[in-house]
Specification:
The longest helix has 27 residues, at about 65-90. It is elongated and about 75 Å long. The N and C termini lie far apart (about 60 Å). The protein is α+β, with helices and mostly antiparallel strands. The protein has two domains: about 5-25 and about 65-140, no CATH class; about 155-295, no CATH class. The protein has helices at about 10-20, 40-55, 65-90, 105-115, 120-135, 145-150, 155-165, 190-195, 210-215, 265-270, 280-285, and strands at about 170, 175-185, 195-200, 225, 235-240, 245-250, 255-260, 290-295. It is about 45% helix and about 10% strand. The protein has a four-stranded antiparallel sheet, with no helix packed on it. A four-stranded antiparallel sheet has the order 3-2-7-4, with no helix packed on it.
């Protein structure tokens, strides 16, 4: 009996494109697009956008029905180009070894519908990574996550990247979170002798409050600030911040505050190229210096 070799990630992607879309993918990426032109006068920009929309200022003698037909044809061609570019880009992220399970056809159909109007190159890269990840491990990305991503603009993608740079995990709960403050249960002695709460301004480290609100709005962060529950004196902390392990012991009973990702946000985080923010890490340690003893 002949041995059947498993398909590689790229082979499975090309098979998916051919059987489901009728598209044959090349094995190499398209040539780099030409650099964007220098700034042009407003009237030229207006005419360029009008032409791209299929509603050119000059009607060229066409009837209204013909102009509408041309606009729909241009839109269809643009959407097909977007889809094919993303399928092509996905080849760069496909691993050699993937699951033997096929991608759910209903999932793939909705995926294709959602990417039709994605023209931004950076967003196309993100969608391509999702497809490659789903081919490698079907069921990895939920439809809810796809719809959250569809709502995301490039500006919000930058906000997610900034949030990811500040995210860490704990051994007790592996879900990513962004620590920003603490408070202690009020007592008369604390009121008279020392502070009972402290908050970090995350905008100093690239994540502004409007960005946080936008991530909440598209369903990537929970809408409410999360509290850890009171950690008693002697409680051990074990955090993973990027490649660093941070350990320490709680010195005084304290409640930590943080932002937590939703399930959709957590699914998208591994797709990002995370850059550690050492200034943020030092600021968190300094913030907690009155209530936590960190190990060097």
């Amino acid at each position: 009996m002949a041995k059947i070799n498993p398909l590689s990630g790229q082979q499975r992607l090309r098979q998916l494109a051919k059987t489901q879309l009728g598209t044959v993918l090349r094995t190499e990426n398209d040539d780099n697009q030409a650099a964007e032109a220098d700034a042009t006068p407003f009237s030229d920009k207006h005419q360029q956008l009008a032409a791209r929309s299929g509603a050119a200022v000059s009607h060229s003698g066409l009837t209204l029905a013909q102009r509408a037909e041309r606009r729909l044809q241009m839109q269809t061609e643009r959407q097909q180009l977007n889809l094919e570019r993303i399928m092509q880009l996905a080849q760069d992220y496909c691993p050699e070894h993937v699951s033997a399970q096929d991608v759910d056809p209903d999932w793939f159909q909705q995926y294709c519908e959602l990417v039709l109007d994605v023209s931004n190159g950076n967003m196309q890269q993100l969608w391509a990574k999702i497809l490659a990840g789903e081919i490698a491990s079907p069921g990895k990305f939920s439809l809810k996550t796809l719809h959250s991503l569809k709502r995301m603009s490039y500006k919000e993608a930058i906000a997610l990247q900034q949030a990811a740079n500040l995210s860490c995990r704990s051994r007790q709960d592996p879900s990513a979170r962004i620590y920003f403050g603490y408070f202690r249960r009020p007592s008369l002695w604390q009121w008279l002798t020392g502070r009972s709460r402290a908050v970090l301004n995350l905008s100093q480290f690239g994540l502004s409050y409007p960005q946080i609100l936008s991530l909440i709005d598209i369903g990537l962060l929970h809408s409410a600030e999360i509290e850890s529950g009171e950690l008693s004196a002697g409680h051990s902390l074990n955090w993973q911040y990027q490649q660093q392990v941070i350990t320490g012991k709680v010195r005084k009973n304290v409640v930590l505050q943080y932002y937590k990702y939703t399930a959709s946000g957590a699914e998208l985080l591994p797709l990002l190229s995370i850059q550690p923010n050492i200034a943020y890490l030092q600021a968190v340690k300094q913030l907690l210096t009155d209530v936590v003893d960190f190990n060097l």
